[in-house]
Amino acid sequence: xxxxxxxxxxxxxxxxxxxxxxxxxxxxxxxxxxxxxxxxxxxxxxxxxxxxxxxxxxxxxxxxxxxxxxxxxxxxxxxxxxxxxxxxxxxxxxxxxxxxxxxxxxxxxxxxxxxxxxxxxxxxxxxxxxxxxxxxxxxxxxxxxxxxxxxxxxxxxxxxxxxxxxxxxxxxxxxxxxxxxxxxxxxxxxxxxxxxxxxxxxxxxxxxxxxxxxxxxxxxxxxxxxxxxxxxxxxxxxxxxxxxxxxxxxxxxxxxxxxxxxxxxxxxxxxxxxxxxxxxxxxxxxxxxxxxxxxxxxxxxxxxxxxxxxxxxxxxxxxxxxxxxxxxxxxxxxxxxxxxxxxxxxxxxxxxxxxxx
Length: 357
Hints:
The chain is mainly beta. It has one helix and 25 strands. The protein has three domains: 4-116, Jelly Rolls (Sandwich), CATH 2.60.120.290; 135-217, Ferric Hydroxamate Uptake Protein, Chain A, domain 1, CATH 2.170.130; 235-356, Jelly Rolls, CATH 2.60.120. The strands form six sheets. Strands 14, 15, 17, 20, 22, 23 and 25 form a seven-stranded mixed beta sheet that branches. Strands 1-2-9-4-7 form a five-stranded antiparallel beta sheet, with no helix packed on it. The radius of gyration is 24 Å and the shape is elongated. GO terms for molecular function: signaling receptor activity. It comes from Corythaixoides concolor (Grey go-away-bird).
């Protein structure tokens, strides 16, 4: 009877949906979500979609919101008795979300997000479905990476303005999907073609001409250096490297120095069969590292790394694993799926270190 779909709940924001959304939700299911905000704050709920088969008093399928402490209830909601506004402002720091269905034939189900009174944005829908004004600050809830909807473009050129805003923000690396956060963006003149890219665990699509596009602005942590600069590497090191001898007896060294992005020919490769291989970058001095781009080696082999972890050090001796915004366990980054394309991953929060592995 589990009617729960995509769910990501944090103390300050979150996103949830019925099972199979945006496909038809299943029959005879029930789901209960408990939303809890920090004491002294109140919850703001945004209805991204409530498409439950209509029936008298929403008897066949219903969405009900309840404040267990004050005894206040909102709903029940379904297609013929939907929420009066897309944004519900409560006076409670705790809300129970109840979703139930009996036998039905149609309906996408529900998509709901929430934020707290600390992060209301500027009158924008927290899911970011609405088109922003020329310059805007919007609060995006946690869990937008897996909501329904497409994005066109990439972090460097911007996004077609019909893209799902907060999903594009995760792709651009300005917020972490695990926590959400405030984003600053502008609407600027559109371009002829939006190139697709794989970044931060999301694929964007190749898109055509649009009048406007969305540009996300990264706020760097002063007095650290500005974001967007490619950092120079003073020296490379590795756990091992492959000394290849080809069929003609010629040597080819896949040494660490060949790991520079854009190097012609072969790249770095660890010795075949080696375990827990690592590549180390010495940045020369302590730097603010906000992201990484990886690519495989297509010459002469179709080599690439599918996933990896990152650790950092300020002295080259004591190493700290990167755990991302949650800090609970070592973060595993999604790498490449072929040897041709580049894949971007953002560090949120940034890494401040001289050495990166």
